[in-house]
Amino acid sequence: MRILHTSDWHLGRSFHRIGLLDAQREFVGHLVRTARDERVDVVLVAGDVYDRAVPPLAAVELFDEALHRLAELGVPTVMISGNHDSPRRLGVGAGLIERAGVHLRTDPAGCGTPVVLADAHGDVAFYGLPYLEPALVRDALGADRAGHAAVLGAAMDRVRADLAGRPAGTRSVVLAHAFVAGGAPSDSERDITVGGVAAVGPEIFDGVDYAALGHLHGCQTINERVRYSGSPLAYSFSEAAHRKTMWLIDLGADGTVAAERVDCPVPRPLARIRGRLDDLLADPALAAHEDAWVEATLTDPVRPQDPMARLAKRFPHVVSLVLDPEGAPEDSFASYAQRLRGRSDQEIAEDFVAHVRGGRGPDEAERVVLTAALDSVRLDETLGETAR
Protein backbone atom coordinates (compact mmCIF):
# COMPACT_ATOMS: atom_id res chain seq x y z
CA MET A 1 0.00 0.00 0.00
CA ARG A 2 1.31 3.43 -0.95
CA ILE A 3 0.95 6.07 1.77
CA LEU A 4 1.53 9.82 1.62
CA HIS A 5 2.44 11.03 5.12
CA THR A 6 2.21 14.72 5.98
CA SER A 7 1.47 16.83 9.07
CA ASP A 8 1.61 20.26 10.70
CA TRP A 9 -0.08 22.32 7.99
CA HIS A 10 -0.81 25.11 10.51
CA LEU A 11 -3.37 26.70 8.22
CA GLY A 12 -3.77 30.38 9.07
CA ARG A 13 -0.24 30.85 10.39
CA SER A 14 1.94 33.75 9.28
CA PHE A 15 5.70 34.17 9.11
CA HIS A 16 6.90 37.31 10.87
CA ARG A 17 3.55 38.95 10.03
CA ILE A 18 3.73 37.80 6.41
CA GLY A 19 0.59 35.91 5.40
CA LEU A 20 1.25 32.38 4.16
CA LEU A 21 -2.23 31.46 2.96
CA ASP A 22 -1.25 31.53 -0.73
CA ALA A 23 1.77 29.33 -0.01
CA GLN A 24 -0.42 26.96 2.00
CA ARG A 25 -2.90 26.83 -0.88
CA GLU A 26 -0.04 25.99 -3.24
CA PHE A 27 0.99 23.18 -0.89
CA VAL A 28 -2.55 21.74 -0.89
CA GLY A 29 -2.48 21.69 -4.68
CA HIS A 30 0.94 20.01 -4.61
CA LEU A 31 -0.37 17.41 -2.15
CA VAL A 32 -3.32 16.56 -4.40
CA ARG A 33 -1.12 16.36 -7.52
CA THR A 34 1.38 14.12 -5.73
CA ALA A 35 -1.38 11.80 -4.52
CA ARG A 36 -2.68 11.55 -8.08
CA ASP A 37 0.63 11.27 -9.94
CA GLU A 38 2.20 8.82 -7.49
CA ARG A 39 -0.96 6.69 -7.36
CA VAL A 40 -1.20 7.02 -3.61
CA ASP A 41 -3.64 4.71 -1.81
CA VAL A 42 -4.13 6.85 1.32
CA VAL A 43 -3.14 10.31 2.57
CA LEU A 44 -2.24 10.78 6.26
CA VAL A 45 -2.28 14.12 8.10
CA ALA A 46 -0.74 13.70 11.56
CA GLY A 47 -2.19 16.72 13.36
CA ASP A 48 -1.98 20.52 13.61
CA VAL A 49 -4.18 21.05 10.61
CA TYR A 50 -4.85 24.57 11.90
CA ASP A 51 -2.49 26.91 13.73
CA ARG A 52 -4.90 27.71 16.53
CA ALA A 53 -8.06 26.40 18.11
CA VAL A 54 -10.23 29.13 16.58
CA PRO A 55 -8.78 29.58 13.09
CA PRO A 56 -9.49 32.56 10.83
CA LEU A 57 -12.22 32.15 8.24
CA ALA A 58 -9.75 32.10 5.35
CA ALA A 59 -7.97 29.11 6.92
CA VAL A 60 -11.27 27.27 7.38
CA GLU A 61 -12.14 27.92 3.73
CA LEU A 62 -8.76 26.52 2.63
CA PHE A 63 -9.30 23.42 4.76
CA ASP A 64 -12.73 23.01 3.16
CA GLU A 65 -11.12 23.31 -0.26
CA ALA A 66 -8.53 20.68 0.68
CA LEU A 67 -11.23 18.25 1.83
CA HIS A 68 -13.19 18.70 -1.40
CA ARG A 69 -10.12 18.20 -3.59
CA LEU A 70 -9.05 15.07 -1.74
CA ALA A 71 -12.58 13.66 -1.85
CA GLU A 72 -12.85 14.36 -5.59
CA LEU A 73 -9.55 12.58 -6.13
CA GLY A 74 -11.05 9.46 -4.58
CA VAL A 75 -8.02 8.81 -2.36
CA PRO A 76 -8.96 8.03 1.29
CA THR A 77 -7.57 10.48 3.82
CA VAL A 78 -6.99 9.94 7.56
CA MET A 79 -6.47 13.03 9.76
CA ILE A 80 -5.94 13.53 13.47
CA SER A 81 -6.05 16.67 15.60
CA GLY A 82 -2.83 18.13 17.04
CA ASN A 83 -2.08 20.28 20.06
CA HIS A 84 -2.82 23.46 18.06
CA ASP A 85 -6.23 22.20 16.91
CA SER A 86 -9.53 22.25 18.75
CA PRO A 87 -10.56 18.58 18.57
CA ARG A 88 -14.26 19.40 18.83
CA ARG A 89 -14.19 22.02 16.10
CA LEU A 90 -12.02 19.98 13.75
CA GLY A 91 -14.20 16.93 14.33
CA VAL A 92 -17.53 18.63 13.53
CA GLY A 93 -19.29 16.66 10.80
CA ALA A 94 -16.75 13.81 10.93
CA GLY A 95 -19.46 11.19 10.42
CA LEU A 96 -20.77 12.86 7.27
CA ILE A 97 -17.30 13.69 5.93
CA GLU A 98 -16.29 10.05 6.37
CA ARG A 99 -18.80 9.10 3.68
CA ALA A 100 -16.61 11.04 1.23
CA GLY A 101 -13.53 9.06 2.26
CA VAL A 102 -12.05 11.64 4.66
CA HIS A 103 -11.64 10.13 8.13
CA LEU A 104 -11.22 12.66 10.96
CA ARG A 105 -9.98 11.18 14.22
CA THR A 106 -10.19 13.75 17.03
CA ASP A 107 -11.73 11.78 19.92
CA PRO A 108 -9.22 9.93 22.16
CA ALA A 109 -11.91 7.35 22.96
CA GLY A 110 -11.63 6.10 19.37
CA CYS A 111 -7.91 5.26 19.55
CA GLY A 112 -8.58 1.55 19.27
CA THR A 113 -11.05 1.79 16.36
CA PRO A 114 -9.16 1.86 13.06
CA VAL A 115 -9.95 2.91 9.55
CA VAL A 116 -9.50 -0.34 7.63
CA LEU A 117 -8.39 -0.14 4.00
CA ALA A 118 -7.44 -3.00 1.72
CA ASP A 119 -4.99 -3.56 -1.10
CA ALA A 120 -4.04 -6.66 -3.11
CA HIS A 121 -2.28 -8.12 -0.06
CA GLY A 122 -5.08 -7.72 2.48
CA ASP A 123 -6.18 -5.27 5.14
CA VAL A 124 -4.26 -2.33 6.60
CA ALA A 125 -5.63 -0.89 9.87
CA PHE A 126 -5.01 2.85 10.38
CA TYR A 127 -5.29 3.97 14.01
CA GLY A 128 -5.66 7.70 14.65
CA LEU A 129 -4.25 8.92 17.99
CA PRO A 130 -5.04 12.63 18.26
CA TYR A 131 -2.91 14.79 20.53
CA LEU A 132 -3.47 13.45 24.04
CA GLU A 133 -3.38 16.14 26.74
CA PRO A 134 -2.52 13.97 29.77
CA ALA A 135 -4.67 15.71 32.39
CA LEU A 136 -7.71 15.63 30.10
CA VAL A 137 -7.55 12.04 28.83
CA ARG A 138 -5.91 10.12 31.67
CA ASP A 139 -9.16 8.81 33.16
CA ALA A 140 -10.81 8.13 29.80
CA LEU A 141 -7.85 6.00 28.67
CA GLY A 142 -7.29 4.35 32.05
CA ALA A 143 -3.71 5.57 32.32
CA ASP A 144 -1.98 5.03 35.65
CA ARG A 145 -0.70 8.63 35.82
CA ALA A 146 -0.96 11.96 34.00
CA GLY A 147 2.05 12.01 31.71
CA HIS A 148 2.66 11.80 27.97
CA ALA A 149 4.23 8.33 28.13
CA ALA A 150 1.39 7.03 30.31
CA VAL A 151 -1.50 8.25 28.17
CA LEU A 152 0.18 7.41 24.87
CA GLY A 153 1.05 3.98 26.25
CA ALA A 154 -2.57 3.44 27.29
CA ALA A 155 -3.74 4.44 23.80
CA MET A 156 -1.24 2.07 22.19
CA ASP A 157 -2.45 -0.73 24.47
CA ARG A 158 -5.89 -0.23 22.90
CA VAL A 159 -4.35 -0.31 19.44
CA ARG A 160 -2.49 -3.56 20.12
CA ALA A 161 -5.56 -5.14 21.72
CA ASP A 162 -7.68 -4.37 18.66
CA LEU A 163 -4.95 -5.53 16.30
CA ALA A 164 -4.62 -8.83 18.18
CA GLY A 165 -8.26 -9.61 17.39
CA ARG A 166 -7.86 -9.09 13.65
CA PRO A 167 -6.93 -11.73 11.06
CA ALA A 168 -3.31 -12.80 10.92
CA GLY A 169 -1.35 -10.73 8.43
CA THR A 170 -3.30 -7.52 9.03
CA ARG A 171 -0.82 -4.67 8.66
CA SER A 172 -1.04 -1.60 10.88
CA VAL A 173 -0.27 2.12 10.81
CA VAL A 174 -0.58 4.57 13.70
CA LEU A 175 -0.94 8.35 13.34
CA ALA A 176 0.21 10.20 16.46
CA HIS A 177 0.96 13.77 17.48
CA ALA A 178 3.70 13.73 20.11
CA PHE A 179 7.31 14.55 20.94
CA VAL A 180 9.23 11.31 20.49
CA ALA A 181 12.78 10.95 21.84
CA GLY A 182 15.39 11.28 19.13
CA GLY A 183 13.50 14.00 17.28
CA ALA A 184 15.04 17.45 16.79
CA PRO A 185 12.72 20.36 17.70
CA SER A 186 12.63 23.86 16.22
CA ASP A 187 11.54 27.23 17.60
CA SER A 188 8.08 27.10 16.01
CA GLU A 189 6.54 24.20 17.96
CA ARG A 190 4.46 24.86 21.03
CA ASP A 191 5.89 23.30 24.19
CA ILE A 192 3.89 20.22 25.26
CA THR A 193 6.06 19.33 28.25
CA VAL A 194 4.14 17.83 31.16
CA GLY A 195 5.71 17.21 34.55
CA GLY A 196 9.05 18.34 33.16
CA VAL A 197 9.08 15.40 30.71
CA ALA A 198 8.98 16.41 27.06
CA ALA A 199 9.52 13.19 25.09
CA VAL A 200 8.37 9.58 24.93
CA GLY A 201 10.47 6.70 23.66
CA PRO A 202 9.92 5.33 20.13
CA GLU A 203 9.46 1.84 21.59
CA ILE A 204 5.99 2.96 22.63
CA PHE A 205 4.95 2.20 19.02
CA ASP A 206 6.24 -1.39 19.08
CA GLY A 207 3.83 -3.82 17.48
CA VAL A 208 2.75 -1.70 14.51
CA ASP A 209 4.31 -1.55 11.06
CA TYR A 210 4.55 2.22 10.73
CA ALA A 211 4.08 5.26 12.98
CA ALA A 212 3.28 8.48 11.09
CA LEU A 213 4.17 11.28 13.48
CA GLY A 214 3.32 14.95 13.70
CA HIS A 215 4.39 17.84 15.98
CA LEU A 216 8.07 18.40 15.16
CA HIS A 217 8.54 20.59 12.10
CA GLY A 218 11.63 18.94 10.68
CA CYS A 219 11.26 15.87 8.45
CA GLN A 220 13.19 13.14 10.26
CA THR A 221 13.56 9.43 10.80
CA ILE A 222 13.47 8.20 14.40
CA ASN A 223 13.85 4.66 13.13
CA GLU A 224 12.78 2.90 9.94
CA ARG A 225 9.21 2.48 11.22
CA VAL A 226 8.81 5.76 13.15
CA ARG A 227 9.06 9.02 11.20
CA TYR A 228 8.11 12.70 11.30
CA SER A 229 7.00 14.25 8.03
CA GLY A 230 7.62 17.77 9.36
CA SER A 231 5.71 20.88 8.35
CA PRO A 232 5.31 21.62 4.63
CA LEU A 233 6.43 25.23 5.15
CA ALA A 234 9.00 26.89 7.40
CA TYR A 235 7.43 28.76 10.31
CA SER A 236 10.60 30.07 12.01
CA PHE A 237 14.18 30.89 11.08
CA SER A 238 15.29 27.88 13.12
CA GLU A 239 14.01 25.89 10.11
CA ALA A 240 16.27 27.67 7.62
CA ALA A 241 18.26 24.50 6.98
CA HIS A 242 15.20 22.24 6.73
CA ARG A 243 14.33 20.49 3.50
CA LYS A 244 10.51 20.60 3.55
CA THR A 245 9.08 17.31 2.33
CA MET A 246 6.41 14.65 2.72
CA TRP A 247 7.06 10.95 3.14
CA LEU A 248 5.98 8.59 0.37
CA ILE A 249 5.74 5.24 2.13
CA ASP A 250 5.37 1.87 0.44
CA LEU A 251 4.07 -0.69 2.93
CA GLY A 252 4.90 -4.15 1.68
CA ALA A 253 2.81 -7.29 1.89
CA ASP A 254 4.86 -8.41 4.92
CA GLY A 255 4.79 -5.00 6.61
CA THR A 256 8.20 -3.86 5.39
CA VAL A 257 8.60 -0.11 4.92
CA ALA A 258 10.22 1.66 1.97
CA ALA A 259 10.37 5.46 2.31
CA GLU A 260 11.03 8.30 -0.13
CA ARG A 261 10.95 12.06 0.46
CA VAL A 262 8.83 14.26 -1.81
CA ASP A 263 9.83 17.93 -1.82
CA CYS A 264 7.26 20.62 -1.04
CA PRO A 265 7.06 23.98 -2.86
CA VAL A 266 9.21 26.70 -1.26
CA PRO A 267 7.57 30.15 -1.43
CA ARG A 268 10.82 31.93 -0.57
CA PRO A 269 14.09 30.60 0.91
CA LEU A 270 15.20 31.58 4.41
CA ALA A 271 18.60 33.01 5.28
CA ARG A 272 20.31 33.87 8.54
CA ILE A 273 23.15 36.37 8.17
CA ARG A 274 25.43 37.72 10.86
CA GLY A 275 28.03 40.46 11.12
CA ARG A 276 28.53 44.21 11.26
CA LEU A 277 26.02 46.18 9.22
CA ASP A 278 28.54 47.67 6.77
CA ASP A 279 30.03 44.23 6.17
CA LEU A 280 26.63 42.68 5.47
CA LEU A 281 25.80 45.42 2.99
CA ALA A 282 29.09 44.97 1.11
CA ASP A 283 29.81 41.22 1.27
CA PRO A 284 29.47 39.79 -2.28
CA ALA A 285 29.01 36.28 -0.86
CA LEU A 286 25.59 37.33 0.46
CA ALA A 287 24.21 38.07 -3.00
CA ALA A 288 22.56 34.66 -3.00
CA HIS A 289 20.30 35.78 -0.13
CA GLU A 290 19.00 38.99 -1.67
CA ASP A 291 15.69 37.36 -2.62
CA ALA A 292 15.31 35.40 0.63
CA TRP A 293 13.43 36.12 3.82
CA VAL A 294 16.32 37.29 5.97
CA GLU A 295 17.07 37.31 9.69
CA ALA A 296 20.02 39.63 10.26
CA THR A 297 22.06 39.51 13.45
CA LEU A 298 24.09 42.68 13.83
CA THR A 299 27.30 42.50 15.85
CA ASP A 300 28.19 46.21 15.74
CA PRO A 301 29.40 47.35 19.20
CA VAL A 302 27.03 50.33 18.92
CA ARG A 303 23.59 50.08 17.34
CA PRO A 304 23.78 51.54 13.80
CA GLN A 305 21.33 54.20 12.70
CA ASP A 306 18.23 52.94 10.78
CA PRO A 307 19.53 49.35 10.47
CA MET A 308 16.34 47.84 9.02
CA ALA A 309 15.94 50.52 6.37
CA ARG A 310 19.56 50.15 5.31
CA LEU A 311 19.37 46.36 5.23
CA ALA A 312 16.14 46.47 3.19
CA LYS A 313 17.94 48.32 0.37
CA ARG A 314 20.00 45.21 -0.28
CA PHE A 315 17.74 42.57 1.26
CA PRO A 316 14.17 43.73 0.46
CA HIS A 317 12.65 40.77 2.31
CA VAL A 318 14.47 41.22 5.62
CA VAL A 319 11.89 40.51 8.32
CA SER A 320 13.87 40.02 11.53
CA LEU A 321 16.62 42.01 13.21
CA VAL A 322 18.65 40.69 16.15
CA LEU A 323 21.21 42.79 18.01
CA ASP A 324 24.18 40.89 19.44
CA PRO A 325 26.93 43.49 19.90
CA GLU A 326 30.53 42.34 20.04
CA GLY A 327 31.96 42.41 23.54
CA ALA A 328 28.57 42.55 25.29
CA PRO A 329 28.18 40.57 28.53
CA GLU A 330 26.87 37.07 28.04
CA ASP A 331 23.72 37.80 29.99
CA SER A 332 22.84 40.95 28.02
CA PHE A 333 19.22 41.54 27.05
CA ALA A 334 20.17 41.23 23.37
CA SER A 335 20.94 37.52 23.84
CA TYR A 336 17.87 36.73 25.95
CA ALA A 337 15.98 34.91 23.19
CA GLN A 338 19.05 32.90 22.25
CA ARG A 339 19.56 31.82 25.87
CA LEU A 340 15.96 30.59 26.09
CA ARG A 341 15.97 28.79 22.75
CA GLY A 342 15.48 25.05 23.08
CA ARG A 343 14.71 25.18 26.82
CA SER A 344 11.50 23.89 28.35
CA ASP A 345 9.17 25.94 30.54
CA GLN A 346 10.35 23.90 33.54
CA GLU A 347 14.01 24.66 32.86
CA ILE A 348 13.30 28.37 32.39
CA ALA A 349 11.37 28.54 35.68
CA GLU A 350 14.11 26.72 37.57
CA ASP A 351 16.75 29.02 36.08
CA PHE A 352 14.72 32.04 37.22
CA VAL A 353 14.61 30.71 40.79
CA ALA A 354 18.37 30.24 40.71
CA HIS A 355 18.83 33.75 39.31
CA VAL A 356 16.84 35.52 42.03
CA ARG A 357 18.51 33.44 44.75
CA GLY A 358 22.03 34.21 43.64
CA GLY A 359 22.64 30.80 42.11
CA ARG A 360 20.70 28.45 44.40
CA GLY A 361 18.10 26.57 42.37
CA PRO A 362 14.89 24.94 43.63
CA ASP A 363 15.06 21.92 45.89
CA GLU A 364 13.05 18.79 45.11
CA ALA A 365 9.91 19.94 46.92
CA GLU A 366 9.98 23.31 45.16
CA ARG A 367 10.58 21.60 41.82
CA VAL A 368 7.40 19.58 42.33
CA VAL A 369 5.46 22.79 43.05
CA LEU A 370 6.82 24.44 39.91
CA THR A 371 5.92 21.39 37.83
CA ALA A 372 2.37 21.33 39.17
CA ALA A 373 1.93 25.06 38.53
CA LEU A 374 3.15 24.83 34.94
CA ASP A 375 0.94 21.82 34.24
CA SER A 376 -2.05 23.66 35.72
CA VAL A 377 -1.47 26.71 33.50
CA ARG A 378 -1.11 24.51 30.43
CA LEU A 379 -4.32 22.67 31.26
CA ASP A 380 -6.18 25.97 31.78
CA GLU A 381 -4.98 27.17 28.36
CA THR A 382 -6.16 23.95 26.74
CA LEU A 383 -9.57 24.10 28.41
CA GLY A 384 -9.91 27.77 27.46
CA GLU A 385 -9.20 27.06 23.79
CA THR A 386 -11.67 24.18 23.81
CA ALA A 387 -14.35 26.37 25.34
CA ARG A 388 -13.94 29.23 22.85
How does this model look, in words?
The chain has 388 residues and is α/β, with parallel strands linked by helices. It has helices at 21-37, 57-73, 87-90, 94-98, 134-141, 148-164, 277-282, 307-314, 336-340, 345-356, 364-387; strands spanning 2-6, 14-15, 18-19, 42-46, 77-80, 102-105, 115-119, 122-129, 171-177, 210-214, 220-223, 226-228, 245-251, 257-263, 270-275, 293-298, 318-323. The mean pLDDT is 91. A hairpin with a 2-residue loop joins strand 11 and strand 12. It folds into 3 domains: 2-263, 4-Layer Sandwich (Purple Acid Phosphatase, chain A, domain 2), CATH 3.60.21.10; 270-340; 345-387. The longest helix is centred in the C-terminal third of the chain and has 24 residues, at 364-387.
Quick description:
The protein has helices at residues 21-37, 57-73, 87-90, 94-98, 134-141, 148-164, 277-282, 307-314, 336-340, 345-356, 364-387, and strands at 2-6, 14-15, 18-19, 42-46, 77-80, 102-105, 115-119, 122-129, 171-177, 210-214, 220-223, 226-228, 245-251, 257-263, 270-275, 293-298, 318-323. It has 388 residues and is an alpha/beta fold. Strands 6-5-4-1-13-14 form a six-stranded mixed beta sheet.
Could you tell me the radius of gyration in angstroms?
Answer: 23 Å
Class by alpha and beta content = alpha/beta
Query: Could you give the count of β-strands?
Result: 17
Which CATH first-tier class of the largest domain would you pick? Alpha Beta
* pLDDT averaged over residues: 91
Total helices: the number is: 11
CATH architecture of the largest domain: 4-Layer Sandwich
Organism: Streptomyces morookaense
Subunit structure: Heterodimer of SbcC and SbcD.
Keywords: DNA recombination, DNA replication, Endonuclease, Exonuclease, Hydrolase, Nuclease
Protein name: Nuclease SbcCD subunit D
